[in-house]
Amino acid sequence: MEKLVKVAVDAMGGDHAPGEVVKGAVDAVNEKNNLKVFLVGKAPRIHEELSKYQYKNEQIEVVNAEEEISCDESPVEAIRKKKDSSMVVALKMVKDKTADAFVSAGSSGAILVGGQFVVGRIKGIKRAPLGAVMPTAKGPMLLVDAGANMDAKAEYLLQFAQMGSIYMEDVLGIKNPRVGLVNVGVEEAKGNQLVKETGPLLKKCENINYIGSIEAREIPYGAADVVVCDAFAGNIVLKLEEGLAAVLVSQIKEGMMSTLKSKIGALLAKPALKKTLKKFDASEYGGAPLLGLNGLVVKAHGSSSAKEMKNAIIQCIAFAEEDITQKIKDQIVKG
Amino acid sequence: MEKLVKVAVDAMGGDHAPGEVVKGAVDAVNEKNNLKVFLVGKAPRIHEELSKYQYKNEQIEVVNAEEEISCDESPVEAIRKKKDSSMVVALKMVKDKTADAFVSAGSSGAILVGGQFVVGRIKGIKRAPLGAVMPTAKGPMLLVDAGANMDAKAEYLLQFAQMGSIYMEDVLGIKNPRVGLVNVGVEEAKGNQLVKETGPLLKKCENINYIGSIEAREIPYGAADVVVCDAFAGNIVLKLEEGLAAVLVSQIKEGMMSTLKSKIGALLAKPALKKTLKKFDASEYGGAPLLGLNGLVVKAHGSSSAKEMKNAIIQCIAFAEEDITQKIKDQIVKG
């Protein structure tokens, strides 16, 4: 029998909560039989949304939580004080093993803090990085650390590379994923102090497929499957890609709408263009996992639609089925 | 009478040297009367290229140099040992005040090292950053430091912001340029240690228009005119924009060529699209100045065409006319 995977979802987190979150959960359980979703938050609001859809009753359970954590609050204080918030209640379900995974599109800061303090790090894991699955010309890659640990050390980056490799291999199914270290050139002598210390550690690590330094220019081409850097650099990579892609696409649209001739051209080219640009659509890949915790914590984009929430929830199934937490313990902590 | 601006050009540097370099120099002097270019390198090769064009003889002078510095050499050793290289000879002309500025599309490392060691820093300037003029939806911005100083300190970044402001105001003509600090969020408490220390220094600096932290996502939208960060982060911004723009444009082209209908659409939309994408064409803006030296040192892209070389050379005119070096001394070192 297939293992039933249980996901605690913060129904109140995100720009379009609870509407899109609830719809995403319904779509997820309608697609996967071995999935149970706990929708955590204000029960009457959640039931109101749920009443719009058809789904198997035993696959969705509503868990009441009266409080909400907003993006304007101090993450540390919010997690400490709001014990009855949708986020803290859902995170506790992972800690208690009531759920295998947690998904939220709410305050990024609170998710990072809550993951570390409520769920807790695996013993021996020094820092829990945020892994963002991003599109490239060759398919998905994992950027790690995409935003959790500012001022990192080389020994943290080594573990990020190891955990990222396990994730890409077992959750996304990429065999022997290529690990690249973000640098200002491919030569080993280049880079800042952190990179110069990290390179040799990655090189002598036996359970990863380290291909060396990669330049930022090569990232969108898919130069590596696991792209390792500190969170400051990672956040720049993540956010700059988002911003530049949006600006370029809007400029192209504007250009195509500028003359009658180009408008007709746009109409004809649109279906083909849409298909190509879908490859670069990050919403296909679900959320960003916080790696190295005693259970899976996934941060979805704040503006997540139902489709992104669905993908973030479904992504948890492979993580639980492959027992990534145990693999991290076996291969990294003991290894 | 207009001041004559003299530019020493490394004729042997770059992927398309000396052909495109010489052509760029010819195009520059044919466009500007108050410009004299010294083409430094192997004289016979340079004369051979020059013989293809028409130009006023007094505006171009060939200076012989027998050696060349390649991109594979150690920059420090190459600059120290190859005294008769096109790069070192040209840089010395700036040091001796024979020329106001130096332009090269050769080895980036050698340009950075040569600028510091041959031309030398202005007394009181702690580090010389590379300023890259980049396109945004709103027009050009200056990214500083785009790749010169790994492991920077807050006091360096303060001077980068000041020098960048002078450059944008006096060379590119942007009044009261907005200075933004690259960060992982707009809140002051966010960021790595360097950013946390730099923010307050920028805030209390009176001769810049500091608008606070900016997220990488906002950079392509033109959120600031002077975008300040350490060279590791800056190199990521510069290279990732290059890579992602290239990948997206090639994906779009591929999409447009995928069906007959879309091919016809592409044909119709092409002229309008080209015009829009030109806004995002970095070659319009010339090269990247190394700021804070006793003379102007400009790094052009390794793959520079004649057009890029021409723009990089012409950019030197405003720098010399506005006497940026003196302004840096007056406003930053004494200020």
CATH superfamily of the largest domain in chain A: Isopropylmalate Dehydrogenase
Oligomer: homodimer
Strand content of chain A: 15-25%
Q: State the end-to-end CA separation of chain A.
A: 31 Å
| Percent range of helical residues of chain A | 40-55%
Read across the widest sheet of chain A, the strand sequence of neighbours is 3-2-1-4-11-10
**Largest sheet geometry of chain A:** 6 strands, mixed
How many helices of chain A in DSSP terms?
A: 11
- Number of folding domains of chain A? 2
The first-level CATH class of the largest domain in chain A is given as Alpha Beta
| Poorly predicted sequence stretches spanning 5 or more consecutive residues of chain A | none
Which sequence of SSEs, written as H and E, runs from N to C of chain A?
Answer: EHEHEHHEHEEHEHEEHHEEHH
By DSSP, the count of extended strands of chain A is 11
Of all protein chain pairs, which has the greatest interface, and how many residues does each chain bring to it?
A: A-B, 62 and 62 residues
Shape of chain A: globular
Average residue pLDDT of chain A: 92
Subcellular location (chains A, B): Cytoplasm
Enzyme class (chains A, B): transferase
Pathway (chains A, B): Lipid metabolism; phospholipid metabolism
Family (chains A, B): Belongs to the PlsX family.
